[in-house]
């Protein structure tokens, strides 16, 4: 082969490599910031790092450079929205949208609320007035977004002995976003609707897991389409089918024992909730409850709850609805909270039920610690079940003759897909992130998106 022919062959090979190479283009995604800023009437924004350009979309589009240290206040003057850039006077806002666009990848801005709470975010920000509040959209690179998700969905501390769990979480979170954005134009930062996201504020050692799995997602092994990569904090030792939670079958989830979740997660592993029979009845528009019956799935999760009150009236509701009635929305998770639908129930009869056998009630008087009932109850007084409203409502001023119900539960969340605590335990035992994903998801393959 001549020198000329070798050169031609080399050029041809390089050309073929170029044709088959995957482009390394950053993908920006829109994240609606509702977790901390829902119905925000006033917010303050400050450029912490990098250079930005402020664009106001009004009758005439205006562009203003914003260097590090620049600030923007967006408020409500009672009748109309108002804004102020730096130390300029407030002006009435009559436009359609404001965009704070990062001019390079180093851009970081901080959002502050009137109560002094602040969160830092990477990327850009779009603002629009919705009649009585500001709407905020964080436009950010997908991989940078994940750096604000994985540490709060799991923990930066897990990087020390559970890095493979963080990698599995990164893949699941990335897959979730890719799938969701195929259906919707944007996602939210709220754990109630999508995935928890707190921007640069929570970035840390978990970023290593995101970098190590960059671009990797889970797809169906037949269609090669992204799956709905669901996960929850703790499955109570048993995974659940998707149709048993949302009525929609999904072949990527099955119900099977999970030995890796058991004994992990503290309060999320085992919890109990106590409630007076009369309070339970009132919650569901019944009189004092006399009996609770549970209809369960094979996993042990409660499908239906049937309650019968002292007047013989019965009501049946779904296990999910029952949990939602007592779930500690907006409050810290603890071992006395109602955290999921995998539970048993125990009735402790009161004086009204014992009918002359009150001596039997004494065996239950000291079942729970005083601190569970109220921090204001003296230790030497001893807790009394007949004084309980519920674990969340505290104690009554006067004892009740009605009984109480104790719900003993395991796990936190729906239990479909990956158990985060189970994944952490698997990582501690030496499993790789692909093995973790294979344990929790069925009929999938790991690919580069």
Overall description:
The chain has 449 residues and is of the alpha+beta class. It folds into three domains: 115 residues, no CATH class; 120 residues, no CATH class; 139 residues, no CATH class. The protein is 22% helix and 28% strand. It is built from twelve helices and 25 strands. It has a seven-stranded mixed beta sheet with strand order 4-3-8-11-12-1-13. It has a six-stranded antiparallel beta sheet with strand order 7-6-5-2-9-10, with no helix packed on it. β17 and β18 form a beta hairpin. The longest helix has 21 residues. The chain is globular. The N terminus is likely disordered.
Main features:
single chain; 449 residues; alpha+beta; 3 domains; 25 strands; 22% helix; globular; disordered N terminus
Structural class: alpha+beta
The number of helices is 12
Strand order of the largest sheet: 4-3-8-11-12-1-13
Distance between the termini: 40 Å
Spatial shape: globular
Strand content: 25-35%
Uncertain runs with pLDDT below 50, 5 residues or more? 3-25, 363-383
The total strand number stands at 25
Query: From the alpha-carbon coordinates, what is the Rg to the nearest angstrom?
Result: 27 Å
Profile the largest sheet.
7 strands, mixed
Averaged pLDDT: 88
Helix amount: 10-25%
Secondary structure elements and pairings:
Blueprint: H1 3-20, E1 28-32, E2 43-49, E3 52-57, E4 62-66, E5 71-76, E6 81-85, E7 91-92, E8 97-102, E9 108-112, E10 118-122, E11 124-129, E12 134-141, H2 142-146, H3 150-153, H4 163-183, E13 187-188, H5 207-212, E14 216-220, E15 231-232, H6 243-246, E16 271-276, H7 277-283, E17 289-296, E18 302-309, E19 314-318, H8 319-326, E20 343-348, H9 351-354, H10 370-373, E21 388-390, E22 394-395, E23 404-409, E24 418-419, H11 420-428, H12 433-440, E25 444-448
Parallel strand pairs: 1-13, 15-24
Antiparallel strand pairs: 1-12, 2-5, 2-9, 3-4, 3-8, 5-6, 6-7, 8-11, 9-10, 11-12, 14-25, 16-23, 17-18, 18-19, 20-23, 21-22
Protein name: Sporulation protein SpoIID
Domain Sporulation stage II protein D amidase enhancer LytB N-terminal: 132-219
GO biological process, one term: sporulation resulting in formation of a cellular spore
């Amino acid at each position: 082969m001549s020198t000329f022919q070798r050169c031609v062959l080399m050029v041809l090979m390089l050309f073929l490599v170029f044709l088959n190479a995957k482009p390394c283009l950053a993908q920006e995604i829109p994240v609606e910031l509702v977790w901390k800023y829902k119905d925000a009437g006033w917010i303050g924004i400050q450029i912490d790092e990098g250079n930005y350009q402020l664009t106001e979309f009004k009758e005439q589009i205006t562009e203003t450079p914003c260097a590090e240290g620049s600030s923007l206040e967006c408020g409500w003057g009672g009748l109309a929205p108002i804004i102020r850039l730096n130390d300029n006077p407030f002006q009435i806002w009559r436009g359609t949208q404001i965009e704070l666009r990062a001019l390079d990848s180093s851009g970081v801005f901080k959002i502050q609320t009137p109560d002094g709470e602040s969160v830092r975010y990477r990327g850009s920000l779009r603002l629009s007035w919705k009649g009585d509040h500001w709407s905020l959209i964080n436009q950010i690179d997908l991989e940078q977004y994940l750096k604000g998700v994985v540490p709060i969905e799991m923990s930066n501390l897990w990087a020390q002995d559970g890095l493979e769990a963080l990698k599995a979480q990164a893949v699941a979170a990335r897959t979730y976003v890719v799938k969701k954005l195929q259906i919707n134009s944007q996602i939210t930062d709220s754990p109630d609707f999508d995935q928890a996201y707190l921007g640069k504020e929570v970035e840390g050692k978990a970023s290593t897991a995101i970098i190590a799995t960059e671009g990797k997602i889970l797809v169906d092994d037949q269609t090669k389409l992204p799956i709905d990569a669901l996960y929850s904090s703790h499955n109570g030792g048993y995974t659940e089918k998707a149709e048993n939670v949302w009525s929609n079958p999904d072949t990527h989830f099955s119900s099977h024992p999970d030995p890796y979740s058991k004994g992990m997660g503290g309060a999320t592993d085992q919890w109990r909730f106590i409630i007076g029979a009369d309070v339970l009845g009132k919650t569901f528009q019944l009189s004092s409850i006399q009996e609770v019956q549970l209809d369960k799935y094979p996993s042990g999760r409660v499908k239906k709850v049937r309650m019968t009150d002292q007047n013989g009236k019965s009501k049946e509701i779904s296990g999910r609805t029952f949990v939602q009635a007592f779930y500690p929305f907006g409050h810290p998770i603890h071992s006395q909270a109602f955290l999921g639908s995998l539970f048993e129930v125990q009735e402790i009869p009161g004086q009204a039920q014992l009918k002359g056998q009150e001596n039997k009630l004494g065996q239950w008087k000291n079942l729970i610690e005083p601190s569970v009932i109220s921090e204001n109850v003296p230790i030497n007084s001893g807790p009394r079940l007949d004084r309980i409203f519920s674990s969340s409502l505290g104690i009554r001023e006067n004892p009740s003759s009605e009984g109480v119900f104790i719900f003993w539960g395991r796990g936190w969340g729906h239990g479909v897909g990956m158990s985060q605590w189970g994944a952490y335990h698997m990582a501690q035992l030496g499993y790789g992130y692909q093995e973790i994903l294979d344990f929790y998801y069925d009929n999938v393959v790991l690919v580069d998106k």
